[in-house]
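Notes to self after the Tuesday call (sharing in case useful).
The group wants a holo model before anyone commits to mutagenesis around the pocket. I volunteered. Ligand is iron/sulfur cluster. Logging inputs and output together so the record is complete.
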Amino acid sequence: MDGRSRRKFIASLSLLAMSGFGPGFTSIIAGCRQKAKSAPQVAPDFEPGYLRLHRGGELKARGEELWSVMESCRLCPRQCGAMRLDGNKGFCGSTSQLEIAAHHPHFGEERSLVGSGGSGTIFLANCGLRCVFCINWQISQGGAGEPRSVEDMADMMLHLQEIGCHNINVVTPTHYSPHIVLALDIAAGKGLRLPLVYNTCGWERLEILRKLDGVVDIYLPDFKYSDGEMASKYSSGADTYPELIKTALLEMHRQVGVAKPADDGLMYRGLMIRHLVMPNGVSGTKEVIDWIAENLPKNTYFNIMSQYRPMHKAFEYPEISRRLTRREYTEVVEYARQAGLTNLDIQGSPL
Ligand code: SF4
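Result:
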């Protein structure tokens, strides 16, 4: 990013922070301002999964396999077929050129990811889901981001490790999964040892997730909706969301299992599900809880998020143009307890 672009980008972030909206952007700013501690903090006996694949040459091969999917792109369930390698943009807004909006220690993620040094977050530009209420819409849909090479991304990963982050947290990774795997391969060769957090909207193709088996240490997916009509209405026609997130969660769980913090309080492996409770039952929270309770272990990590705020185009939809009420939140927390879920991350009351 040159000086002018950087100033423009930081200015746009600052405006958002000052507007008082959007915990996402506000926490990005907070992350930028926080100073990470100097020493990397991972358990001495921890080895990320991708390291074994790197040693055998498999990591690079997986990255190249994923790269070839961009010929007529089917990386995400949109399967729009864009010829990204020829410079064409897909529905997500990406060609094969990697674009990154920011990278820094983030102190607003889950406690077991933040620790004392922060989660080493890399915000990738563009998105295939394109929700009307996205808190990071400037990054996901607004073109914020700068062209970067795969080597640049590897350097960012190493830098985040150097300044003391506990993991590499790739945000909205699906459309750049080939770049991430290839960058990991380079960084692993230069000493990267942090767990990889795959921070996704959850709308994933099983075929692509299988190529990430052994690459990802921590899956951090959203479970946004239980109803396809809602998914379609608020996420650009993605009516397959409920069906695909369920398949994805089963695969993620098969790969990494239940997320349990280690003795040092940090997470190194496992499935961590996030669910943003939306007003007026739009997100179908009770059905989401029922499905998890019936299909995954009861101690599956489940973060019930209360911070919904109308952003971006949400004001065009009256039913989601307000914050959550305390009653709406406490009701679903109680429901999750009654369903027998034991590993709940409960947040402060929304109001
Ligand atoms: S990742 Fe982008 S280009 Fe590829 S299928 Fe999805 S929307 Fe289309």
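Two things stood out.
The CA atoms of residues 41 and 109 lie 16 Å apart.
The chain has one domain: 45-346.
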